[in-house]
Amino acid sequence: MSYTILDASNLEAYLFSLPKIKAFFDADSLIIDEIGDGNLNFVFLVTSSSNGSRQLIIKQAVPYLRCVGESYPLSKERMTYEIRSLERFAQLSPHIPKIYHSDEEMSLLIMEYLNSHIIMRKGMIEGIEYPKFAEDISSFLANTLFKTSSLYLSSSDKRTLVSQFIGNSELCKLTEDFVFTAPFMEDETNAELPELSDVAERIANDLELKTKILHLKYKFMNQSDALLHGDLHTGSIMINQDETYVIDSEFAFVGPMGFDVGALIANLVMSWVSHTVQDNDSRYSDLILETINSVWQRFDEKFRTLWNETEESALLTKGFANDEILKSYQKQYMQTLLQESIGFAGCKIIRRQFGIAGVEDIRGIEDDAVREEANRLAISIGERFIKQYHTVKTTDDIMKLIKA
Amino acid sequence: MSYTILDASNLEAYLFSLPKIKAFFDADSLIIDEIGDGNLNFVFLVTSSSNGSRQLIIKQAVPYLRCVGESYPLSKERMTYEIRSLERFAQLSPHIPKIYHSDEEMSLLIMEYLNSHIIMRKGMIEGIEYPKFAEDISSFLANTLFKTSSLYLSSSDKRTLVSQFIGNSELCKLTEDFVFTAPFMEDETNAELPELSDVAERIANDLELKTKILHLKYKFMNQSDALLHGDLHTGSIMINQDETYVIDSEFAFVGPMGFDVGALIANLVMSWVSHTVQDNDSRYSDLILETINSVWQRFDEKFRTLWNETEESALLTKGFANDEILKSYQKQYMQTLLQESIGFAGCKIIRRQFGIAGVEDIRGIEDDAVREEANRLAISIGERFIKQYHTVKTTDDIMKLIKA
After folding, report:
1. Are B401 and B388 a contacting pair, CB within 8 Å?
2. Cβ atoms of residues A138 and A253 within 8 Å
3. Residues B290-294: what's their mean pLDDT?
4. Domain regions of chain A by residue span
5. Of the partner residues B166, B181, B211, the one whose CB lies closest to the CB of residue A162
6. Are A218 and B332 an interchain contact pair (Cβ–Cβ within 8 Å)?
7. How far is CA B28 from the centre of its chain?
8. What is each CA distance from A354 to A124, A198, A262, in whole angstroms?
9. Distance of CA B17 to CAs A150, A313, B3, B12, Å?
10. Residues A148 and A255 sit within 8 Å (Cβ to Cβ)
11. What's the CATH fold of domain A22-112?
């Protein structure tokens, strides 16, 4: 079907035109709720009128930024990259909601409704513990990153993968602008935070910091390690006590692995900051630090296991490297990946303080003084992450940079 | 026109079907000579029968490796990448032969015949001096590399460029196999050189060397700095006392800049090795070292000048970096580029000793003992380049690694 914007008036007819979806609902009519609270797309929860447990999510991109309107055009082809990446990730990991239907032409995705899960950021703000999270997300990261890299794919399959995502220019440009650029200079898109003007000025003129940011931005633009989610913060994760699902991958592209790992660490650090400045005891914030440690340790172990199970790849021809050479290279590879993750995490933390898009964990703090304390603590961690990422060798080093 | 293999029987009719080419020759008939001595393609020199100065080169790819025949299939689409890269380079630099006609469908390129130029490798073997070379090639490298990078292009133009070359998988795979892999292990494609078996074994088991080679191969596969020629040795350069032209860019892809710079340095070093072991005096070999120094110094200066003239790019938003920050980043950028160039040069030098494709400068030495001396000298330089590329800060450091 050629592109048509769906709304309450035509969505039911469209869904009934898809035999598989019609069969799923098995009803005369559908209950349609527009539930999207995101910035970019329209999201509908559709429920069978005859069976309330038959529910699906319909997500459609429109050729503008939904939260602003038609005055902010943004190509609807972003959905193409969300579809392609979710379908690829779903082949590699169980931590993706079930996809019922996708249509690049319609910029549309029909997915499982996760009715017992919530956005992880909201859960963490409430101090909820997620005992399966470190295990699940480390598994998602290891499988999706390793198996879309030159350490696993053939040379030609890797280039095909790059070609499938190289067109996602607009969303990559948003990241380049809003993660690596605007927050570190005077820019009209930044949040108005006069109380932080001293820090903003310090950062804008810090030679070491900004030189390192340029290195990291350059890597973001020119290092095609693996297929990334591209925006893997705690708002892109649906979770409960038993299960973890990754959603909203419209920023997907083939880029540096550390950018996904770093996004996750950055958002865990910001939750730590939020709890540290607000909670009476350190129980939950200590748990967050343990989660950061555990995510990396498990990721590192799973990634190496996948690697050791791989006989041949674009990088490694059978017979090229003996076990000792391979282990030496792996050790350096994982250390560089950890370092780059911390560098990217630093950029992500600082951009969430100064930039257009804050995080609820910190921007949502009502008391001005406490919120400013959180901003300053987060910024100081971000600065240390960026300036010292090259020195990080273990997760203990990360803890030191957080608590310094 | 759909793909048809051209030969002496149908070439004239084809050329006369192209109005611009027919007008160029302005003759009733053409003299056709097949002159290709390369491995990959058919090359014809075509001359007007009524005017011997009206000459063009016709180059066509066939769907197999020309030097082996139909038993070694190789996609003729390689010519697509040669056409696209030469046309792009021609917009950026005068050091590309004039292109009269190109046809991706026909895998065909019609170019200026450089009748007073020779392949630079042959000239260097004869000890000919090329006073314009360092100036010309540094200008070619600075313009083509800088202006196809994120330091010059917009984010979206850079991604479009990557997409135009990402399909050149087969030729990239040849480089991955024959530059970074086979020469450093037991492989049936390697040259039979029993006299070097001690060195081959040392290299095959050298942990530090092979770990570094894996790093360099990974960069080749995953670092998309700029549009590269991809095979920039002295056999891909046509030269005389006044002019320098770059040809044969079928290996073009968006990769690490150091790979082109390094290819050039590697081939100058191998010429130095050849003259050092054969010449009675060091005049020409000293001149080669001065050429290496001069190519880098001029390249570095031109590259920075282009950079300083660029107000905005994918990497650098106006207002992000003050002059001091920019200079600091530039310094680190150029140093990393020099280091990576030396690392890649090391791989290229060693592969030309052990691998399937030698260089005439060394393989052409008739005296077995002198040739072995050259092989060993070249290999020892290659090993130092690979192991110590991270330590190189200036061209003096390169000279030390060469002469150690």
Report:
1. yes
2. no
3. 98
4. 22-112, 118-403
5. B166
6. no
7. 38
8. 22, 12, 18
9. 46, 47, 15, 9
10. no
11. Phosphorylase Kinase; domain 1 (3.30.200)
Give the pLDDT band of residue A67 (cuts 50, 70, 90).
confident
* CA pair distance B2, B107, nearest whole angstrom: 10
- What band does A66 get if pLDDT is binned at 50, 70 and 90? confident
Give per-residue pLDDT as tens, A330-357: 999 999 999 999 999 999 999 999 998 8
Using the predicted structure, report yes or no on whether residue B187 has a pLDDT greater than 70: yes
With bands split at pLDDT 50, 70 and 90, how would you rate the model's confidence at A95?
very high
Query: What residues in A contact B331, CB-CB < 8 Å?
Result: none
Q: Are B207 and A189 in contact (CB under 8 A)?
A: no
Give the contacts of A288 (CB within 8 A, at least 6 positions apart).
Answer: A124, A268, A269, A271, A272, A275
**∠ CA A217-A382-A143, rounded to 5°:** 65
Q: Which residues of A touch B203 (CB under 8 A)?
A: none
Please check whether residue B271 is in contact with residue B364, taking contact to mean a CB–CB distance below 8 angstroms. no
Identify the CATH assignment for B11-112 out of 3.30.200.20, 3.40.50.720, 2.60.40.1220, 3.40.50.2300.
3.30.200.20
Instruction: Give the span between the Cα atoms of A314 and A20, in whole angstroms.
Output: 39
Query: Could you tell me if A95 and A221 are in contact, meaning their C-beta atoms sit under 8 angstroms apart?
Result: no
Cα–chain center distance at A163 = 21
The reported pTM is 0.97
Q: What percent of chain B has pLDDT over 70?
A: 99
Test the A interface: residue of B184, B214, B326, B351 with most A CBs within 10 Å: B214
Chain B closest CA to A383's CA: distance in Å?
A: 16
Question: CB neighbours of A68 closer than 8 A, spacing ≥ 6?
Answer: none
Average pLDDT along chain A: 96
Contacts of A159 in chain B (CB under 8 A): 166-167, 169, 172
Q: Is B189 on the interface with A (CB under 8 A)?
A: no
For the segment B83-95, what is each residue's pLDDT rounded down to a tens digit? 999 999 999 999 9
Q: Which residues of B touch A162 (CB under 8 A)?
A: 162, 166
Which residue in the set B159, B170, B217 is minimally distant from A315, CB to CB?
Answer: B217
Provide the b/e sequence for A338-363 (b: ≥16 CB within 10 Å).
bbbbbbbbbbbbbbbbbbbbbbbbbb
Residues 192-211 of B with CB under 8 A from A: 205, 207, 210-211
Residue A120 has pLDDT above 70, yes or no: yes
User: Is A356's Cβ below 8 Å from some Cβ in B?
Assistant: no
A56 Cβ partners below 8 Å, 6+ apart? Answer: A21, A24, A25, A45, A46, A100, A110, A111, A112, A113
Q: How far apart, in whole angstroms, are the C-alpha atoms of residue B76 and residue B107?
A: 6
Arch. (CATH architecture) of B118-403: Alpha-Beta Complex (3.90)
Using 50, 70 and 90 to split pLDDT, how confident is the model at A222?
very high
Distance of residue A171 Cα from the nearest chain B Cα, in angstroms: 10
Q: Which residues of chain B are within 8 Å of residue A171 when distances are taken between CB atoms?
A: none
